[in-house]
Amino acid sequence: MLDFLVNFFTDYGYAAVFSCLLLCGLGVPVPEDITLVAGGVISGLYPEINQHIMFAVGILGVLVGDSTMFLGGRIFGYRIQRIKMFRKILSPRRFSQIQQKFKQYGLGVLFVARFLPGLRSPIFLAAGMSRRIPYHIFILMDGFAAMISVPVWVYIGYFFADSRDLLMNYVHDVQSVIYACLGLILLVVLAVWIKKKIKAKIADRINKGSSSK
Q1: What pLDDT shows up at residue 63?
Q2: pTM metric for this prediction
């Protein structure tokens, strides 16, 4: 996949990277991280392709793709599931599951979704369909996460453009670190949530005991 994208981006430059990222945001099964890495690779191989402009193109492509999914859900609501493509991305059952996650973990779900291939599009679509999250909050959370993920992939591709084998090793290592960090964050959030539930139950019992006297 990396070699194919590098060859494709070499021929069509920034526009190809932006278009590919837009498709990623719309749920097309193209790995976003490898797309960004490939953009970094061509900026490392060809002087006419600037790595910093590639970073900006990456941010723009990611945010436009994500916003399209979110705003599509916000504008059309549940009607968007009448479209076969979107019904495959977000079934009614998955929508219900995602809404439950929002209730448990709040807006943090939007931040974490940026790092979860395969879940990113349905989560953003569900967030828009719920119409409970303002667009400026969505773009703030998504943009913050993108400012972490996009430069990592673009600049890894740039710095290791001449060594594809070493590059892919670093890509796998970074992916592992990201998933480990997300797992740790999830455990911390879960522990805080359980602690709050326990405190609430204890307070409720104390209040019931006081009122019965």
Answers
A1: 95
A2: 0.79
> Which of 1, 31, 20, 32 minimizes the C-alpha distance to 146?
32
Q: Write the Ramachandran bin of 83: left for phi over 0, alpha for psi from -120 to 50, otherwise beta.
A: beta
The Cα–Cα gap between 190 and 36 comes to 31
Residue 20 structure tokens: 């590919």
Residue 31 near residue 127, CB atoms below 8 Å:
no
pLDDT surpasses 80 at 11: yes
What is the token pair recorded at 35? 């797309």
* Residue 186, CB-side half-sphere exposure with 13 Å CA sphere: 12
Split at pLDDT 50, 70, 90, the class of 26 is: confident
Which of the pair, 57 or 164, is modelled with greater confidence? 57
Could you identify the residue written with the tokens 């996650």? 101
Q: Report percent pLDDT > 70 for the chain.
A: 94
* Overall size of the chain counted in residues: 213
Structure tokens at 122: 């349905």
Q: What is the DSSP letter of 106?
A: T
Give the pair of three-digit tokens for residue 152.
């990592």
User: Residue 146 and residue 82: Cα distance in Å, rounded?
Assistant: 30
Cα 87 from Cα 53, distance rounded (Å): 35
Residue with tokens 């439950």: 100
Residue 188 confidence (pLDDT) above 80: no
